Every structure is written in C-alpha cells, then in structure tokens.
Amino acid sequence: MLRFTIRRLLQVIPTIIAVVLLIFVIFSVVPGSFASSLMSDGRGGADADMVARINEQFGLDDPVHVRFFDYVTGLLQFDMGESFRFRQPVTEVIGDRIWASLKLSIAAMVFAIVVGVPLGFIAALKPGSILDSITMIGAVSGLSMPQFWLGLLLMYFFALILGWLPSFGYGGGDFKYLILPAITLGVTPLALLARTTRAGVLEITNEDFIRTAHSKGMSNSRVIRWHLTRNVMVLVVTTIGLQFGSMMGQAVVIEKLFSWPGIGTLLVDSVAIRDIPVVQGTILVIVLWFLFINTFVDIIYAAIDPRIKQT
Amino acid sequence: MMKTLTFSAMLMAGTAVAAWAQDATPQSGGTLNFTAPYGSTFGTLDIQTSSSVQDEFVAKAIHRSLYDWNSDTSQPELELATKVEVSDEGRTHTYTLRDAKFHDGTTLTSDDVIASYKRIIDPANAFAGARYFTNLVGVDAYKEDTSKDIEGLKKIDDKTFSLTYTGATEPGYDLMRVNAAIYPAGAADREDLQTNPIGLGPFKFVENIPGSRVVVEKFDDFYEEGKPYLDKVNVLLLSDASARDVAFRNGEIDVSVMGPSQYVTYQADPALKDHILEVAEVYTRNVGFNPEREPFDKKEVRQAFNHAINTPLIIEKLVKNKAYRATSFLPISSPAYNKDAKPYEYDVEKAKQLLADAGYPDGVDVELTATQNESWGLTIVEAIIPMLNEAGIRVTAKPVEASVLGAEVPAGDFHSFMWSNVSGPDPFAVMTSFYSDTSVSSGNYWRFDNAEFDALYEQARDENDPEKRTELLRQANDIIQEEAPMWFFNYNKAVMAYQPWVHGLQANATELAIQNYEDIWIDDTAPESRR
Fold first, then answer.
1. What are the chain A neighbours of B123 within 8 Å (beta carbons)?
2. So what's the ipTM on this one?
3. Nearest to A37 among B406, B409, B421 (CB)
4. Which of B205-209, B354-358, B403-407 has the lowest mean pLDDT?
5. A179 three-state secondary structure
6. Would you say A189 and A243 are in contact if contact means Cβ atoms under 8 Å apart?
C-alpha cells in the first residue's frame, strides 16, 4: 500500500511541472499588462512615465526566460511572488481566500453526497417507481440548469420571498450565508451522483455474485451492505473525486453571484487587471487541489478494492 | 425656452434629488450597508498606491486629502486647510492646516503632508498620484535622487506649508483625489499599512474580510462638529448586477449603482422610482479615430461618421436613456460646456456626400476596437455597423479585453476605438489631452493636432481670470467638435438607487458612487438591523 501511495504521488510531479510551464507561457503571450489595465477605466490612471516605472518595478521588461527562472526558483522556495495590485506576497493574498473556497466546496460536496447517493440507491432499488422517475427528472434538471440561473432563483425565493436567508455575502463566516451558495454549487454533483449511483446499483444487482449471494440464503440487507454497496462505491468514489476536485474551479460563477470571498472571484478579477503572479498562484492552487483529491481517491480505491493496487 | 428648460433639468437632475434627501434634520446613529460594485475584491487599503475607483469606496471613509470635491458647487474646496494664500502669479500656494487628528490620536501637521506627498512622488514607489506633482519645483531633482527634499514643497511651521509650481496652477483638482490622502508622517515605515489603515477621515478601520467587506466605525474625534452621523459603515463587495438587485429589493443593501436595464425597471416600479439619484458624470463615450491612418486623416470622413449614426436612437434603445447625447468632448457638467452647440444631425445623404468630397465615393473600410462593455462596447458597435454601412462606412469590429484596449490605444495601435474617457471635472486638464504637445501615451489618444486649438489652449493656460479662461476652453471645445476627432456618442448619466430611509447622498459628478459618508444619515424607518 505504501509503495502504491508513493508511486501515485511521484506521478503527480510531471503534471505539476507541465501546469507551471503552461500557466507561465500562456500569461507571457496574452496581450495587455497590469500597467495597461490601470488605463482601461478611461480615467487616465497611468501615464507613459508611470507605465515604465511599473514595468521596471515588477520586472516586466525582463526577458521571458529570466522571468521564468525567477518564477520557478521562487516556487521551489514556496514563494509565488508579489501581487502587483495588492502589493503583498501572493501566498498571503491566496491564504486570505482559500478557507472560504474550501468551506464552500466541502459544504457543496457534503450536500451532494448526503442527498445524491441515497437518492440514487433508493431509485435503483425500486426502478420504474414514482420515486425513481422523480429522482431522474430532478437529476436531469439539475445537470442541465445553469448554476447562475439556479442561484438567482434560490436567492429570489429564499431571500426575497421567504426572507429566511441572506441573499449574498459572507457575514462573519456564519452558517446561514453558506447555505444558498453551497446548494447552488452542489446541485450539479448531486444530480451526477444520483444518476451514477442508480446506474451502478442497477448494473451490479444483475451480476452473478449477487444472485449467488441471494441463492446462498444471505439476507437482502446483508447483500446490499456487503456486496452491492462495496462494489458500487468504486464508481461513486470516482464521481465524487472528479467532482470534488474540479469544484474549486466551478465555483467561480457562484462566488461572483453570491459575493463569496473565495479564490474564484480573486482569479477573475486578477485576470482582468493582469495581476499575473496572483493568476499563476491561484490556478496552481486549483490544479494542486484537483491533483490532491484525485491522488487521494486513487489511494481510497486501493483500500476499497485491493485488485487496483496490482494495476 | 423648452430647450433651456430641458438643459437646466438635466443639469439639476442630480442635485435636486440630493437636496430633497438632505431636507430633513439629520439623525445620528445606525449602520449603512454601502456597496462597491466594480469587481469582487478591494485591491489595497493603502490608498496612496491605488488608482482604482473600487478602492476609493473604503478610502473615502478612512482618509482625507488636502482638498475635497463639493458636489453642490461642482468645485474642489479646501478640506484639511482653513485657508490658502496664492502668490507669485498663481505659482505659490501657502496653506494653513486645520486642527485635525488621525485615528491614532496624533495631530495633523505640515510634516504629515510633506511626508505623504514625498511618498506619492517617490519614483521607486511608482504611484499613480505622482502625476499630480509633475510641475512642482524641484520634483525632477528629487526623482533623479540628486536632492532628498523637494524645493517646491516647504514646511513653514507645524501648521503652515507651501507648494510652489513651475507655472500658474490650480492644485485643487489634483489634490482632492483620494489617492493623494494624507497619512501620518512615518506611516510608510509601518508594516501594517496594508491591513490597518490610519487616516483623518470620519470613520476608522475595524475589519477587512478580503473579497467580502470592509467595516469602519465612527471616529469620535473627526474634525467636523457633529459628524459623522452614522455609527458604522459596511462597504460590501457585490459586483453582480442581478444579485445587487435582489439584495436591494430585500433591504440588505442601502444603495445600488444601476446599469441601463435596471434603470428602466426601477423607473417603472412605483415603489422604487422616487428614490433614484441621477447625475451627469464626467465621462464621454466616444469612438476615437486615428488621424494618422487612412481614411481618418480626412476631416470629412470623421464628420461623415458622426452624421451616419442615429445617435438619439442608440441612446434611447440600447442605453435606455441612461446617458446625455454628446455634442463635443466636454460634458454637460463642465463649466466650459457649450450649451448652445448643436450635435451632428443624423443625415445619411450628407455623410455620403462628405465621403465623396474626401475622395471616397465608393465608401471606406475601417476597423473598430471595442470591449464587451454594456454601455460603450460591442453591443453599441453591432448597432451602428448597419447605419454606417448604409452611408458607405464598412466597419469590422475587433473585440478586445479592457486591459488590451488600455494597451493598444495609448500605443497608437488602432484604426478606431470605442471608449469612455474621463472629461472632467477640470476642463483645462481635459483639454490638455488635445494639445498637440501631449503624447498619445499621455492621453492624446485621438492624436489631435490643431494650431487654432493650441493657440486657445495656450491662452487659457496663461489666463488668470477664471471666467475668461473658461470661455477660451469653451471655444477650444468647439474646435474639437468641428474637427470631429471622434464620434461624439454620449455623456454618462450615473444612476444610483437608494433606500427611502437613507438621506444625505451627494450628486457627485466626478463619480456618483463615491460618497462623503459623513454627510449620510438614516432615519427611523430603517430596518431594525441598521438602527
């Protein structure tokens, strides 16, 4: 198990190198700069003299290879550089936001798992029933409805009509502010989990080993607990891993809509004003989160199904 | 008569509403939930480093500058000084500071002003505010590090200091800027300058939740007696217009800056229409032409562009009347605006004739660089393309991001561009952008070069009588209209909705959303959570 874990962790390294290179190259060739973004509001926020000073101050006139070398050597020392806009270390800027992003992602995923997996199970155990039909219609709707639109509907209904919840913001980190953004973000993975679980359960229910277990006289609940659930979990954990890993990236729209102070909104604002160190740092964190979750899921697989260790 | 009434009504639209709001006797106490709509983050709490409007929402509560904008008189006025003596033919300004305290309890002195201005000017910092001091005597020597002091920035005693410029200068327009705020001397050495700002403003900093809100609370030692009225202000980040609409209707926020579509909805809603503050802001939306490229080197082509577009129709249908039609560059709220000027009339035949006169009987092909902006971007470009095509001006749109526009236009890398450019409040500073000695990178984006204009500009520069100066600038603005270096589209009408319990908002033509919070108060009808 230890060797498997180490092997999986080592496989992450080339991915990280590729991502670092890609992020740097992309933001070295895109037009526009931090200095030019200061002029974009039409207020004449910068003149030629200031643009030259800014470029010099942040080393933007240096050749690309010099900047890349500085960037990589900085990263090796866990230094992501200094934000042009905030004039603070990027690690501090991201550090201020990462907890809000994690909180939202975890809450949305918990909501999706707690509701989606049982719904999928129940629907599969009674295929063709009214509950199954409702679940699947709900799942298709959840997958196809734009999150932005759903968020607005929830905001309108729970904040404006019922007055139960705040429509936006973070408050002091209070739970009530988390509910609407978490539900909005969690609906897509919930729908996907419900469909995946249902399909998995239906497929495994017809497998020979399930029939054998039944024919041996094993009780239905024991079959579900020992054979069905364990086999379905590989599929469910895969879906959870993929969804959870990509959730920080998906949250950008939701964070903006609900004015949630995560790294998604930070990324969007930083791209607009070409605060490249923050953009690079934020994308790297999102990618690392995805890799971490996927590696973690791979290790969980091995625990659930020892055959995976052999592959 | 009708025309005069309409013009006056436009001018007074904002101030009338604001005056109504200020009618009642102010009440003290309560919390204001103000919104910062231009993005999902504040850049920095060290406002001297910033040139962003978004950062000014917080800074205006915490900091004060030497001057401040008076929305009632539409003039900059002394704020941190009780008097200024101007001598040496307008070159030297000697200020006597008022009694004021910083939030850390220290008293404002000349040393604070000098230290603040030196920090802003310091080339190593690359602050946007450095340009306010370019014609201060001795600035070059300071920048080149041949002098540690600035000759034109002199302390006389603890409460008196002077600014000496190389020529006659009215410094109020520059030194009222929020990023020219005065910090305590030695603030630059503080490590927590970014996270714990200290200023002279009516509110002191309490808390910053990055990406969510900044909270400030009443500063009891603020220098204006009885102010601020509010106990607390929450400056909340809320960039999405739909979410802002829900939050406003739900009473979670007290003000909301509106775009064109919301403006129409709110005007039609009986519950909301009486609480809308409007002002003609100092921004001119235009399509700028590059006269160094064919066919815009011909005045007739530039004029044809103006005649070919049904501008009132675009303003009505697409901008939803959230704008005033432009005649030339200086906006309605500018003292040098020519209220008798007639805009270019919509006349396709005339446009065709002008093109033929310019030597283009078969029409011209042009490229137009524009962003996605709702009010002055691709939506507008798509609407004017068929109109221009009918006159023989075939336009290809070039979509770019805002920061790319900000790079390409100052670099002169465009055929034509669509932008919203600041056009006030100081008409002289605005006209500097059209002076032939001003480079493209310094603001002459239209590469305007006209001898008659230059002569009027130079006369205005040397004129000490404000009225004569304004008249000269008005004539210069008329030349811009005649030369048509741009399609004169509109002047922005900034619109802000406010809750009925909010009073004391100001019709700030420089940027409506930036308010002096100390003048705002809320009445008893506010929700319990605000009282």
1. 53
2. 0.85
3. B406
4. B403-407
5. helix
6. yes
Residue ranges of alpha helices (H) inside B33-77 are 53-62
Task: Select the residue of A45, A96, A265 nearest B128 (Cβ to Cβ).
Answer: A45
B465 φ/ψ angles, rounded to the nearest 5 degrees: -80, 115
> How would you classify residue A88: left for phi > 0, otherwise alpha for psi between -120 and 50, otherwise beta?
beta
Sequence-ordered alpha helix ranges (H) in B38-93:
53-62
Spell out the residues 6+ positions from residue A91 whose beta carbon is closer than 8 angstroms to its own: A78, A79, A80, A281
**CA A25-A38-A42 angle, 5° bins:** 130
Residues shown for chain A: 311
CB pairs under 8 A between A and B: 168
Question: Model confidence over B445-502: pLDDT tens digits?
Answer: 999 999 999 999 999 998 888 899 999 999 999 999 999 999 999 999 999 999 999 9
The closest of A275, A277, A278, A273 to A37, measured between CA atoms, is A273
Cis ω before B343 (30° cut-off from 0): no
- Mark which residues 433-472 of B lie under 8 Å from A by CB: 433, 439, 441-443
Whether the pLDDT of residue A253 is over 80: the answer is yes
Q: In terms of C-beta density within 10 A (0-12 exposed, 13-18 middle, 19 or more buried), how is residue A16 classed?
A: middle
Reported as a single tens digit per residue, the pLDDT across B32-56 is: 999 999 888 898 899 999 888 999 9
> What kind and span of H or E run contains B365?
strand B364-370
Q: What are the two backbone dihedrals, phi and then psi, of residue A261, each rounded to the nearest 5 degrees?
A: -85, 55
Q: What is the largest CA-CA distance in chain A?
A: 85
Q: Both tokens of residue B421?
A: 């450019």
For B88-182, strand residue ranges (E) read: 92-97, 153-157, 160-164
pLDDT level of residue B334 (50, 70, 90 thresholds): very high
Per DSSP, the residues of B129-153 read GGGGGTTBTTHHHHHTTS-SS-TTE
Q: What is the pTM of this model?
A: 0.89
Place of tokens 């929305």: B71
Instruction: Test A49 with B237 for CB contact under 8 angstroms.
Output: no
Q: Say whether pLDDT at A310 is over 80.
A: no
What span, in angstroms and rounded, lies between the C-alpha atoms of A148 and B405?
28
Set out the domains of chain A in order of their start, with CATH numbers.
Answer: 2-89 (no CATH), 91-310 (1.10.3720.10)
* Cβ–Cβ < 8 Å for A56, B125: no
Domains observed in chain B: 64-194 (3.90.76.10), 280-492 (3.10.105.10)
Range of lowest pLDDT (B13-17, B108-112, B251-255): B13-17
Q: Which residues of A touch B242 (CB under 8 A)?
A: 152, 257
CB-based contact B239 A259, cutoff 8 Å: yes
pLDDT tier, B15 (very low <50, low <70, confident <90, very high otherwise): very low
Residue type, A123: A
Beta strands in chain A (DSSP E): none
User: Is residue A108 classed exposed, middle or buried when 0-12, 13-18 and 19+ CB atoms within 10 A define those classes?
Assistant: buried
- Over residues B1-14, the mean pLDDT reads 40
Inter-chain residue contact A168 with B247, CB threshold 8 Å: yes
DSSP B268: H
A 199-258: CB under 8 A from B:
255-258
Among the partner residues A257, A266, A273, nearest to B403 by beta-carbon distance: A273
Angle between helices A147-154 and A175-205 (to 10 degrees): 130
pLDDT tens-digit series, residues B65-82 = 999 999 999 999 999 999
Dist CA B456 CA B474 (whole Å): 9
**pLDDT, tens digit, for every residue of A52-106?**
888 888 888 888 889 889 989 999 898 999 999 888 899 999 999 999 999 999 9
Chain A: give the shortest CA distance to residue B212, in Å: 5
E strands within B11-80? Answer: 31-36, 67-70, 75-78
